[in-house]
């Protein structure tokens, strides 16, 4: 049955109810510091970057892009992965503990070797015991040189392509020349090495949703297809101990390293890095939290003892040690950064560009000379107005602008479906344009050239203006000599180091597990003041009404820019209290008189977005549940709670009733008055019974108190407490049914008032 709590009077009024480089950066198992997610439209302000061209923006985003491609036990407080065992101490002082980081990565804690062996190498194999039939494993620098002397050094090694812990039975320090095992560790059959773990999906209010969240490593979360409507004023990514979010949690910087309120996301895959040395092993949940209003927009629980890889930072490995970088043009800070990932390559271009300029990088048609004509570059730029990024696959038919299908043209202008470049991310960082893209190693069509990983090849690059069609014009800066890059070389960072904190600063200690309680203290978030212009006039509830002193407290929309924010001067987050059908009216009460509040704000604490216990307090903010002990000590509660064993338990709970706008009507901002907007609302109630809060203000009650939500901030408004009431105004009897409405302001006459009234409403199915 659908009936509106909008009974009309005879006039149809709603009633008031209520960059040669010698030299694969293969993706070493799990690469785990962030680089940048997919394209975004915000200027990054993550770290302080010097204006000098020798100080470059961080490559942190490239690693994240690799995560997006690659990612489809705690020991004495430090986590290095899963312990395989200790190296047997056979010869030349070999010792150390070997951990599995992931399927292809080993970490050796306190590795020791005297360096005196004639031809020692790291070896692994699938035979029953170490032997010459194994294969060499590159050292921590990516070389297969003879092992030098080590003394209690922590090192990270990566198995060759095609080799994982699934198909080896031993790891050894092996002497090639004399076929001697200096020390080894056996890999147990069926060894469960750390790997990324899938959790549940995010689902909540404000359009928060995602595919299953992936814990990539102990400090990295991958959120595929993340959506959020961007409408709330202070939403943040959030983690904390325990199964559910609270105000005592910790902010997680977004995919660009910022802690600003989240913007709108539409099915974007993002990678987040936990702050500092925090790890998932210390946490119980991850989600989206509205900090200023203490609202859970959706979260997932983080199981204890997740068998996931440690992050590179936890192993003392910098992201740059796993990536390549070359300077192409120093005066413009033009760099190319890359890493080979399977059968594709992820490339990041960074440069100081003027507005309307592009940067391009790619392959020469002649592998032995750098020549433009016939080249296969990617042209990239960031629009400085919109911050939209672009990465376009080009073919250089001639040294001219594209005309028809001739000249320097996008592949797609020459032949359909030939753009082999996928934009992963674009950003502006302190004047630097940063574009990250992916392309296959092999040529995808006749307009592409292959990227070689077993030898060097000639490259080309240019910088110049875009024309009115947003296509390349003749370059103003370009490569004037032959230059070569070996894309498949071991990682080598030949660029200025980014201006950021070194991961080597990460030191693991037993006390790290206490980081959650040692987080920096900060002032609780408060939303910025809202404009109070053009506020709707909401008629106050006078001291003489309703006659029986019964108020119905229900939930409803904030009424757009004319409603809650304009009335209170505080930004609303989407819902607020409705009292007797009115949006946060001022209530006038008299000391000594008993009042009853029929509370219909929800009763299931497991669904925070549908749980709004009603209470009366001297606190203009509300949200008592999420306050610190110090904050709680400063406020008083007059009704709506009981104290049990030192805890404050809300009692103003009951079924949820919501005033729901008609989707076929204009948005709230379009209505000149609340009366007109009110008529578009329908009261929908869950099955169940309301709660009752009874309150008698007395001489100790302040002149102004507030009705609020126990679990969320900024949902209620004022109650004026009077010593007496002028009862000369006519007051209808409690049992008398009369029309009660808020009229459009331009037509407003005296309002008629009514006592509390029971009215039909739409009863929804029980969704608890």
Automatic annotation (TrEMBL):
The chain crosses the membrane at residues 59-80. Residues 81-188, 197-303 form the DM13 domain. It comes from the Eukaryota. It holds the Pfam family DOMON. Residues 28-55 have a biased composition (Polar residues). InterPro entries: At5g54830-like, DM13_domain, DOH_DOMON, DOMON_domain, Spindle_Org/Thrombomodulin. Residues 332-464 form the DOMON domain. The keyword Lipid metabolism does not apply. Keywords: Membrane, Repeat, Transmembrane, Transmembrane helix. PROSITE patterns: DM13, DOMON. The keyword Transferase does not apply. Residues 1-55, 727-768 are annotated as: Disordered. Coiled coil: none annotated. Residues 1-19, 735-751 have a biased composition (Basic and acidic residues). This is Protein Skeletor, isoforms B/C isoform X2. It comes from Temnothorax curvispinosus.
């Amino acid at each position: 049955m659908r009936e509106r709590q909008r009974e009309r009077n005879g006039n149809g009024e709603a009633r008031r109810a209520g960059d040669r480089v010698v030299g694969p950066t293969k993706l070493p198992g799990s690469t785990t510091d962030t680089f940048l997610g997919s394209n975004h439209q915000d200027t990054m302000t993550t770290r302080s970057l010097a204006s000098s061209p020798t100080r470059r923006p961080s490559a942190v985003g490239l690693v994240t892009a690799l995560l997006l491609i690659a990612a489809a036990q705690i020991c004495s407080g430090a986590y290095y992965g899963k312990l395989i065992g200790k190296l047997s101490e056979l010869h030349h002082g070999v010792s150390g503990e070997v951990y599995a980081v992931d399927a292809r990565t080993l970490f050796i804690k306190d590795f020791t070797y005297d360096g005196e062996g004639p031809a020692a190498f790291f070896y692994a194999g699938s035979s029953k015991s170490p032997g010459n039939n194994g294969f060499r494993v590159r050292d921590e620098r990516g070389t297969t040189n003879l092992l030098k002397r080590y003394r209690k050094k922590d090192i990270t090694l990566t198995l060759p392509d095609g080799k994982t812990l699934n198909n080896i039975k031993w790891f050894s320090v092996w002497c090639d020349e004399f076929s001697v095992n200096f020390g080894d560790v056996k890999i147990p059959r069926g060894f469960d090495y750390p790997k990324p773990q899938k959790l549940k999906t995010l689902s909540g209010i404000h359009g928060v949703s995602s595919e299953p969240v992936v814990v990539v490593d102990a400090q990295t979360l991958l959120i595929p297809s993340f959506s959020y409507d961007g409408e709330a004023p202070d939403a943040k990514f959030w983690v904390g101990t325990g199964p559910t979010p609270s105000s005592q949690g910790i902010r997680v910087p977004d995919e660009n390293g910022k802690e600003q309120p989240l913007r709108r996301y539409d099915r974007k895959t993002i990678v987040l890095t936990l702050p500092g040395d925090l790890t998932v092993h210390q946490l119980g949940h991850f989600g989206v939290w509205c900090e200023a209003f203490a609202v859970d927009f959706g979260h997932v629980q983080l199981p204890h003892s997740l068998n996931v890889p440690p992050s590179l930072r936890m192993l003392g490995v910098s992201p740059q040690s796993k990536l390549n970088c070359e300077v192409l043009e120093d005066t413009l800070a033009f760099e190319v950064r890359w890493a080979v990932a399977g059968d594709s390559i992820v490339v990041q271009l960074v440069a100081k560009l003027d507005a309307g300029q592009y940067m391009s990088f790619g392959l020469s048609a002649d592998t032995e000379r750098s020549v433009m004509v016939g080249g296969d570059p990617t042209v990239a730029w960031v629009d400085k107005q919109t911050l939209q990024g672009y990465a376009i696959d080009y073919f250089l038919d001639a040294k001219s602008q594209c005309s028809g299908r001739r000249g320097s043209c996008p592949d797609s202008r020459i032949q359909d479906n030939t753009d082999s470049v996928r934009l992963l991310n674009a950003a502006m960082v302190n004047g630097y344009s940063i574009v990250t893209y992916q392309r296959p190693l092999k040529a995808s069509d006749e307009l592409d050239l292959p990227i070689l990983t077993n030898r060097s090849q000639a490259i080309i690059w240019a910088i110049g203006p875009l024309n009115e069609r947003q296509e390349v014009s003749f370059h103003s800066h370009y490569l004037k000599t032959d230059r070569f890059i070996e894309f498949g070389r071991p990682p080598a960072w030949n660029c200025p180091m980014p201006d950021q904190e070194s991961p080597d600063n990460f030191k693991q200690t037993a006390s790290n597990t206490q980081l959650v309680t040692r987080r920096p203290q900060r002032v609780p978030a408060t939303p910025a003041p809202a404009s109070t212009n053009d506020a709707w006039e909401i008629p106050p509830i006078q001291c003489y009404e309703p006659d029986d002193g019964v108020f119905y407290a229900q939930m409803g929309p904030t009424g757009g820019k004319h409603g809650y924010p304009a009335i209170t001067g505080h930004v609303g987050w989407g819902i607020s209290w409705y009292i007797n059908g009115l949006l946060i009216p001022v209530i006038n009460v008299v000391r000594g008189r008993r009042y009853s509040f029929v509370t219909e704000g929800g009763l299931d604490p497991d669904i925070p977005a549908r749980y709004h216990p009603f209470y009366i307090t001297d606190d203009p903010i509300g949200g008592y549940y999420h306050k610190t002990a110090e904050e709680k000590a400063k406020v008083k509660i007059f009704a709506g709670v009981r104290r049990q064993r030192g805890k404050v338990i809300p009692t103003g709970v009951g079924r949820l009733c919501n005033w729901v706008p008609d989707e076929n009507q204009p948005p709230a901002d379009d209505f000149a008055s609340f009366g007109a907007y009110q008529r578009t609302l329908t009261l929908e109630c869950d099955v169940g019974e309301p709660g009752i809060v009874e309150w008698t203000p007395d001489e100790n009650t302040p002149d102004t108190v507030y009705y609020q939500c126990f679990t969320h901030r900024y949902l209620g408004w004022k109650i004026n407490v009077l010593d007496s009431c002028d009862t000369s105004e006519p007051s209808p009897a409690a049992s008398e049914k009369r029309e009660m409405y808020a009229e459009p302001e331009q037509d407003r006459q005296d309002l008629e008032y009514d006592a509390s009234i029971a009215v039909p409403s739409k009863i929804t199915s029980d969704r608890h």
